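For consistency, the fold was encoded as tokens, which produced the following:
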Amino acid sequence: MYEAYYQLSERPFNHAPNTECFFAAEHVRESLSQIVRIVTRGEGLSLVAGPTGTGKSSVCQLLVEHFQFSHQVVYFQHALFSSRHSFLEAVLLALGLSNSRNSEAQNRTAIRNHLFNLDEHPRSLLLVIDDAHQLTPDVLEECRQLSNLVYSGAPRVHLVLSGLLKLEDSLSHPSLDSLNQRVVHRCYLSTLSGLETRALVGDCLERAGGKVAELFTRDALRKIYEYSEGVPRTVVQLVDRAMLMGMKFEKSMLDAYEIELAWADLQQLPEPKSPEQLEQAATNPTSATSSIEFGLLSD
């Protein structure tokens, strides 16, 4: 909607996870490189962990895009499996195999036969599971068993689990010691600093043909960081709404007030006072309040 108004080639801020608009700090870029190496070499299990909204799903999608031509990739965006059986059925379905009325044992055999048939399926399987903190211990154990599939000394299944930090608590359970021992790398995501928040906004705008310095004042950028607290998902939502507000009020450059308006709109809060209203209240305090005079009851 606002793309044409601000002369952008595309919408720069999408609420859905978007690898094109993902800012990675140096330690995250290094972690991604290590995960790529681990999957390529078959070294073991990788974890991606962090608070809500910090980009875990984007990291998963980056890995899926990177390995889509070199591996059979199965990506579960939501780890909503009620049992081992439902998990194995989902894997079979993602691999394009029939799973009609199969038992757990038959499903395991079907997956094994598929992966060990190198003539027809030479590529190994990369299994990426997001929201993995929701997996039950039984399903996590099934993941471990899948990761045990080895043919001629080479692993046929590579596993990446992504979730909230409590995923590590799940893996620390004694019953999952064997799976936890297979974790060879942990990629931790966190909130952004003020400078990183500005860089995220700038990167997204540049991809759409815009420049952050031409669209946002310094006060606006400070407000974005203040309200979002550096959570990438919140940054994207807030800036997207602010640009809609800017178009509505025909603002060529967004200031702190437009960010305040956008935040109030997102949080369903009362609309903040405009700079003009604040100035009027400061110069004429009596105009900022209204009074109602009540007469005596006898009146």
